[in-house]
Amino acid sequence: MCAKFGKTYTLQQWSRAIGIRKDESVASLISETGINMTVDEFHKELYEINLKKYPFAKLMPGVMRLVTHLKKHRIPMAIASSSLRKFFNVKTSVNRELFRMFDNVTCGDDVKNLKPAPDIFLAAREAIGNPPTKQCLVFEDSIPGVKAAKNANMKVIWVPNPKVAELYPDNISADEIIFSLNDFDPTKYGLPPFDEESSST
């Protein structure tokens, strides 16, 4: 979409956009690049592009293994996504087997303040029975999400795009940084160990 106007969507711009309200990130992008589109026009065109791309989306390595493991051991799980629910439903339609294992989904239109405010994580926590915040473990790919989890007094593991991590070498607020969920050790957080026969997928 930026290329149509001779612009490049940079890694820095993407890193700032993930985890925050889309209207805010799109408005910022339009302002920075000077592309001749309104926020609504941008959303509409992006939605049409994503409708074609989402069916080919692949899970990150280790996701199915981890979620299946936690479900097997009856560990409550919730999703806290800044995406509006209508966009979340489109994004996840290709991986329904995975998302059916979660106990709750909280989306951006369910709370007043998005990341880095703690609201979305606190709402997701309430939906699964209000466990103590210090017993909640968050997996995040965005820096606003890491900050939101810490603001909610929860433990957080940052699983960033390695190139984004290089942009923010001083982001030390996360309790742990891993680059693949295959590297996650549940026993470090009081969770049951992976079965020996469990494959890394």
Q: How would you describe what is shown here?
A:
By secondary structure, the protein is mainly alpha-helical. It has 2 domains: 3-56, no CATH class; 63-189, HAD superfamily/HAD-like (Rossmann fold), CATH 3.40.50. It has 9 helices and 5 strands, in the order ααααβααβαβαβαβ. The protein has helices at residues 11-17, 22-33, 39-53, 63-72, 85-92, 96-99, 119-127, 143-151, 162-167; strands spanning 78-80, 104-106, 137-140, 155-158, 176-177. The strands form 2 sheets. The chain has a 3-stranded parallel beta sheet with strand order 3-4-5, covered by helices on one side. Strand 3, helix 8 (143-151) and strand 4 (155-158) form a beta-alpha-beta unit. The mean pLDDT is 90.
Shape, per Cα inertia axes: globular
Rounded to an integer in angstroms, the radius of gyration calculated over CA atoms is 18 Å
Q: What is the spatial order of strands in the main beta sheet?
A: 3-4-5
The helicity comes to 25-40%
Strand count, sense and closure of the main sheet? Answer: 3 strands, parallel
In CATH terms, what is the fold-level topology of the largest domain? Rossmann fold
Distance between the first and last residues' Cα:
33 Å
**How many beta-strand segments?**
5
SSE sequence, one letter per element: HHHHEHHEHEHEHE
The CATH first-level class of the largest domain comes to Alpha Beta
* CATH homology superfamily name of the largest domain: HAD superfamily/HAD-like
User: How many helices does DSSP assign?
Assistant: 9
How does the helix and strand content classify structurally?
mainly alpha
The proportion of strand residues reads 5-15%
CATH architecture of the largest domain: 3-Layer(aba) Sandwich
Count of individual domains: 2
Uncertain parts? none
Mean pLDDT: 90
Pfam family, one: HAD_2
Protein name: HAD-like protein
GO molecular function, one term: phosphatase activity
